[in-house]
Every structure is written in structure tokens, then in C-alpha cells.
Amino acid sequence: MTAFLPGLASPLIRLLLWLGGLVVGTLAVRLAILLLGKSRHGFSQAAVRRLGLPLTCLVPVGVARLSQVLLPIGPTVRGLVDHGLLLLLIALTGWGLVSLFDAWRDFAMQSHPINTADNLRARQLHTQLQIIRRTFVILVVLITAAAMLMTFPAVRVLGATLFASAGAAGLIVGLSARPLISNLIAGIQIALTEPIRLDDVVIVEGEWGWIEEIRATYVVVRIWDLRRLIVPLSYFIAQPFQNWTRNQTDLLGHLYLYADYTLPVQALRDEFLRRLGETPLWDGKAAGLQVTEATPQGVQLRALMSARNSSDSWNLRCLIREQLIAFLQSRYPQCLPHTRIDWMPSLSQPPPPAPG
Questions:
Q1: pLDDT digits (tens, 9 = 90+) for 283-292
Q2: Which of 32, 140, 253, 267 is deepest in the core (most CB within 10 A)?
Q3: What are the structural domains, with CATH classification, of the chain?
Q4: pLDDT of 180-190, one tens digit each?
Q5: 3-state class of 180 per DSSP?
Q6: Partners of residue 204 on adjacent β-strands
Q7: Mind giving me the DSSP string for 22-70?
């Protein structure tokens, strides 16, 4: 370079030109980000938010490595600087790829908000994006780390040696990492087949709750009493469980009441329908009250009612149960469940004489 530009022989000028390149690269990136931020498109806003910092670091590092020949340093130091910049460039590239995916994920999630009444499609998308992101991050981290290690000659030699004996080493690594690999594969299966989604209502190990988080290797279930149940991802592939919101968010709830045979069922049914019509928890789709069992002690009545989601269904059942019990107590207390006892004469006493 000094053969074509003799003025660059001055170390100070070469250093200033190198620093100037960094400043110009940084300003160019910031200008591009500023112009992109003026766009009202959702993806542009997400890209500025996610890619602003990675690009601000990535471009100057790339310019610094391309122009490092301008630095007034010796060959040994130049090699170290070039290697350091290469490692930093690889790391920033991995960060940029993850940030680019996050920008696209943010745009997709904003287009499908989950805090709506009918959020089935949104929960599907959010679940898939969350699982895919965790798998993508793991792959990017592994590839980035491998690329950085392969820049060291000693590691390349070691890699060739390990590749020659990959049979036994691969078997040992595969056995030790089997739980991690099985959960990662289960995560991909869950993203494709969707047995669970975010905010699904499930019963797992006898516990009723919501799917709160889907991690790379486990799922967090928020129990109704605010406890958290941590379940491996592979559980939802290998074990049976209940999913109350698999195809739709609305539910058909039920409750049971027990009463005496003397209860006028139609009066209770009319009260049940009247109470349902007064509460906004009922979605108006389904309602019914039937006698489902008759035992020597009394009758069993089942009340069915629909609600928009699991929380409304639970609250609706509790409310209607309380109101129907109060109705029986106030209007038909004699029809509440009770046990009858008939006092029969003792078998040891002689029968009464026949009349006449």
C-alpha cells in the first residue's frame, strides 16, 4: 500500500486513517438505523430495536479487520490483532443472527397478540416461535463457538484427531447427553404437533394449571394456587395428560348437586337458567340441568354450562353452585339431602292379635 500511496508511510497518518474508517463505519450504521427507524412498518421497528446494537458493533469491527494493514505495528502484533478481530467478528455475527431472528419473532408476535378472547392461533404461533428460538439459539451458539475454536491451529489438529476416533467418542457423548438430546427433539416435536401451547389449561400429574413457559428442555406449569410445576419436555410426548384448550378456548363446565326425591326438578331448572342469564361469566352457548343418578338416599343432578375460558368456567361453576344451594335452603329446605330411618317393631315381640 505504501508503494502506491507514499504519504501513508507516516505511522500517524495510517493510524488516523484507520480510526477514521471506524468512525465512518459507525456513523454509516447509525444513519441507516435512524432512517430505518422512521418507517412505520412493524418489522422495521422491531429490527431497529433488536439489531441496532449488534450492527453498531459488527460493522466497525469488520472495517477494522479489513483495514488493519494500516496499523503501524509489527507482524507479530498484527497477527494477534487480526486473530482477535476475527474472533470478535464471529461472535458478533452470531449475536446478529439471533437478533435478526428476534426481530422477526417480535413482529410476528405483535401481529398476533395473545391477550384476546379467541387467542388459539396466537397461542399456536407464540409456542412455535418460543421453541424454535431456543433451538435456533443453541445451534447458533454451538456453531459460533466451533467457528471461533477452529481459528486456532492447535484446535484444528485436535479436531482432526478426534474425528479419526469419533466412533467411541461419539458413543460416550451420545450416552451422556441423551436426556438433553431427547428433550431437544421433544421440543421440535411439540412445535410441529402442538400437543401443548402457551396458556393452555392442562392437568399434569393430578395438578390443574396453565402452560406458563416452554423452555429448551422443560415446561413450567403454573398451578392454580401459584405454585410452579417443572416438567421435562419429553413428558408431554411420552406420558398422557389432559389439555382442556387443545382445539378451542371455551369450555363446558359442570357441577353436581344432591337432593331428596321430593325436590321439584323443574323449579330448580328454572332457577338455574335464570341465574345463568344474570352473570356475564356465561357465554350463552350451552346450559342444562338433568337428573343423572337415583340412589336409595336421593337423586343426583348435573348442571352443564359453557364459558369463554377456563377461568370463567371455574368461577361460573362456583357461583352457580352457591346460588343453587342458597335457593334450596330458602325455598325447599325439606328437599335437602337427608337420611330416613323407619323404626320397625322388634322381631322378638309377638305379632298383634288378629281383629275379631
A1: 888 899 999 9
A2: 253
A3: 1-111 (no CATH), 123-248 (2.30.30.60), 251-335 (3.30.70.100)
A4: 666 677 777 77
A5: helix
A6: 207
A7: HHHHHHHHHHHHHHHHT---HHHHHHHHHHHHHHHHHHHHHHHHHTGGG
